[in-house]
Structures are given as C-alpha cells and as structure tokens.
Design a protein that fits this description.
about 300 residues, mainly alpha
C-alpha cells in the first residue's frame, strides 16, 4: 500500500506529460485578474456582479469541454487501433512470406529477408510520413541503396514500399514459388496495410473545425474573465486563487484535447511510434532466425498455377 501511495503521489506531482507548461500563462492571467478585482472590491468599487453567472452557464461550458475532449480522444484511440492493425498485418504477412514462399535458388532466402525488412520499412515510412519528415538514415539498413535513393524523391514513401512488396509477391508467383491462394492471402494483408495508412492520413488531415475551436477558446476566456465579478463578494482576497484554480481546470481540459487530437507526433501523450517500429524490427529479426519445417513442393505449385 505504501508503494502504491508513493506511486500515486509521484504521478500527481509529475510535470512531464502534463499540460501545465501549455497553460501556465493562462492560469497566471486568471489569478492576476481575480486579484485585481479583489483589490477594487476592497476599495469599495462596485465590481461585484453575481448576475454575470447567467451569461455563460457552467453546464453549457462543461458540455462543450466534454465534447471537445471526447472528440480528441476518439481520434487518439482510432490512431492507436490503426497502428495495432498495422502491426498485426505486418506480422502475419511476414510469417506467410517466410513460411510459404519456396526457395528455389540460393539467393531466394536473401530476397525474402529483403522483403521482410521492407515490411519494417513500411511502418517506418508511415511514421515519418505522418510526422511530415523526410526519408532518413533510419531506413538505410532496411532496403538496398538503390531503393533508398529512389525513396527520397517520393511524395508518399509508404505507397512506394507497398508497391515493392507487392511486386516481389507477384514475381514469386510467376516463378512458381507460391500458389494463387497464398498470393491472394498475402495481397489482402498488403491491402490492409495501405488501408491502415489511409486511416491514419484521415486522422492527420481532418483537424478539429477551426470555427468550433475558436468559439470554445472565446467562451473559455470570457468565462474566466467574468468569474471574479461573480465570486468577489463571497471570497474577497481568495478571488485570485480561486480564479486561477478554475482557469487551471477549464484551460487544462481544453489543452488535453488539443494535445491528443494529433497522436502521431513527439509529445509525451502521443503514440509511441518509435517504440512500435523498434518492436516490429525485433520481431522480424527473430522470425528470420527460424527455419520452417515444411516447404511447398515446386511441382505442386506448378500444377496449382496451371
């Protein structure tokens, strides 16, 4: 229980991953303005206006913030599901390539390893593409130098990598190294990878409507500026502190929604795409060390294809 209490306290006081850095200026402004109103009230100026509580009902602002946060979290969770599907499709396709494609010539095994590394390259290029970054040295060890150079000039590198994988599968089919059923299964998994890419692009390129974001910010600012006039008669010198706490609450919720609505970046609350790609690379390296117990016989492949 002591360890749990310590962990709870550590999480409560943790600065990294919180939105305090993004909203502390807003909090200071709210607190300073509330303190100013309390000073004016102390000198008996008529700043106390409890009726202003009816201008923006708290329940209306609360519903707007809940909708904002839920919408952002849906985008975050959909992005995570897309990457989870991408990981599963890569693992399944890698397994089928390694087990099902027959090795006729000595260089066939190396070609399969190259294809498996291209699957990892698809994940890495998807990550870079979603972050708006150019092809970098992270991909250099995952493909031949000629492909790496060509990939640098592509507008959508993941699509090019998917093309190379599909071209490799088609070539193995024409060489009688896999049958039509296996080819269809692998092509379906490859299509799923492209679908995952498209779903991530949809999240990235469909931000929160600007008018809604602007209106919510305007309401938040107006609410926090009107709040001291409503509470100064009751709280007196505590007005600044309470205004700062309310600002911390409402601006924090809005900042959380803003941070998680694009889950593909480098923020502490974004998806760990680097770790996901590294995990897939380790999975592929482990798979390459395994030797399948059975191979499809070339004659049966030819008869199936005929």
């Amino acid at each position: 229980m002591t360890a749990k209490k310590i962990a709870w306290l550590r999480t409560t006081l943790q600065f990294k991953g919180s939105v305090i850095k993004a909203i502390y200026k807003h909090i200071l402004v709210c607190g300073a303005f509330g303190f100013l109103i309390s000073i004016l009230y102390h000198f008996e100026l008529r700043v106390s206006q409890p009726a202003l509580a009816n201008v923006i009902p708290s329940i209306v602002l609360g519903l707007l913030l809940v909708f904002r946060t839920n919408t952002a979290y849906e985008r975050f969770w959909e992005g995570r599901k897309c990457w989870g599907s991408l990981v599963n499709n890569i693992r399944n396709l890698a397994r089928q390539i390694w087990v099902s494609i027959d090795e006729i010539s000595p260089e066939d095994k190396q070609n399969k390893i190259t294809a498996l590394n291209l699957l990892v390259a698809f994940a890495v290029t998807t990550k870079l593409h979603l972050r708006g970054e150019a092809v970098n040295s992270e991909l250099e060890d995952l493909m031949p130098s000629s492909k790496y150079i060509k990939l640098k000039i592509m507008n959508n590198p993941p699509i090019e990598v998917a093309f190379w994988i599909g071209d490799y599968l088609q070539e193995q089919y024409h060489r009688n190294c896999l049958n039509s059923y296996q080819l269809t299964s692998m092509q379906e998994l490859l299509n799923n990878l492209v679908d995952n890419l498209g779903a991530c692009e949809r999240i990235l390129k469909t931000p929160m409507p600007l008018a809604y974001a602007i209106h919510l910010k305007q309401l938040l600012l107006l609410y926090c500026l009107l709040l001291p006039f409503q509470i100064v008669a009751t709280l007196g010198w505590w007005t600044g502190l309470i205004s700062a706490l309310v600002g911390f609450t409402v601006f924090g919720i809005e900042a959380i929604g803003l941070e998680i609505e694009n889950p593909f970046g480098y923020d502490p609350n974004d998806l760990p795409l680097d770790a996901i790609c590294a995990t897939m690379k380790r999975n592929i390296d482990d798979l390459i060390t395994l030797t399948p117990n059975a191979r499809s016989h070339p004659s049966s492949l030819r008869s199936d294809k005929s």
